[in-house]
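Take a careful look at the protein record below. Let me know whether the structure tokens fit the sequence:
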Amino acid sequence: MCKVSWCNDYSRRWKNGKPMSLCSTHVQYKDICINAININRPHLMYKVEMFAQGKHQCEQCNFDPVVAYPNLHLRAQASLLDVDHINSNIKHTVEGEHPDNYQLLCKHCHIVKSHLEGDYIAKVNRK
């Protein structure tokens, strides 16, 4: 099965006679963003999936780096958006590392949201 936590694709890819850990869809994405194949950071794969689907706008203010900077390389455009955990309290859980808990935000919106939610404060010190 594919190692991307929300993918249920059981198809196997083979390389040099050995099974690969990503399905045929997700193995293509590693060429777009090499960091996206880090299974410990599934939110990066979400960003790549959104860009591949043509969804590259901030979900808060609608900033679109592809429109704003059309001559910039795709990786640089993608770096202008962050994947935010909508509910940061469930990060690193099965439910928290699922596309339903992700949203693309521009750097500004992500900083403001994180500040308003107190994400910069260690969880043990939050009230």
